[in-house]
Specification:
With about 300 residues, this protein is an alpha/beta fold. The chain has helices at about 40-45, 55-60, 65-70, 85-90, 95-105, 130-140, 160-170, 180-185, 190-200, 230-245, 260-280, and strands at about 15-20, 50-55, 80, 115-120, 145-150, 175, 180, 215-220, 250-255. The longest helix has 20 residues, at about 260-280.
Amino acid sequence: MIDKQAPSTSTNIGVLRVGMAMWSHEKWRECLYSGPRDQWLADYAKVFSTVEGNTTFYALPKIASVRNWSQAVGEAFRFTFKLPQSITHQAQLRHTQGLLSEFFSTMAPVAEQTSIWMIQLPKQFGPQQLPDLETFLNQLPSDRTFGVEVRHPQFFAKGAAEQQLNRLLMAQKVERIMMDTRAVFAALPTTAAVIEAHAKKPHIPVHVLESGQTPVIRFIAHPQMSANDQFFQPWLAKLSKWLSNGLNPHLFIHTPDNTLAPQFAVYLYQQLADFCQNQKNFSLPSLELPELPGSQQIGIF
């Protein structure tokens, strides 16, 4: 469990938030949930400090549900939510003032508990549409933090298009969400979960950009836990540096089917905690899964 009150050795150390791609997963009954389904978010938030709110990408939730989400978590927990695909994929950011207004009105109960609003753009959203992105960003509330995830190949080619994108995000202090899929694409496609991940996840290089105070990493893991070490190792120095500089990074851990994502998150977080203690001389709060009746150690190394 994250001890959210645990002091660090320096008052300048930023806050690291760790979470996963969802808070509700049937397979997590054995390792995370102690109560019925309507308490799963509360159980999740007792261990992890953030979550990817993907549900808003697919449909606008009922405001009663949003109120329940707000009441289920503690003061230190922070959501992230994706803007609806009606805005990012269907309208591709054009003429969306009405949709934006409806979305933020619905999400008002969790506005103060949301650290990042994610703008996931489709693969076909390319350099020619950067003016649309700039216009869209200028319409967003100035008191909220946003992150943009791009997937068009030109934004990873280190050319003029990527430079233009990065300059725009830095000028707006909008995060460039960093997706790391190297580990999952290093896995052999021998299971249905890995085959599906290879089909759905973008096979793109990792480009790191610090454009605001809240860097976001989405790490898509190899299904064998220890196979992730070589891919996660470069993030240890980067994350510890961000924390030392007072930034507040968010780290989201995915696995091909997310069944063991909680265990993977704890495992990778412990590597970071050890690195920070040994190299940077500051301590991170503990992160542990609860000991539930009937829980058992799963061989995943």
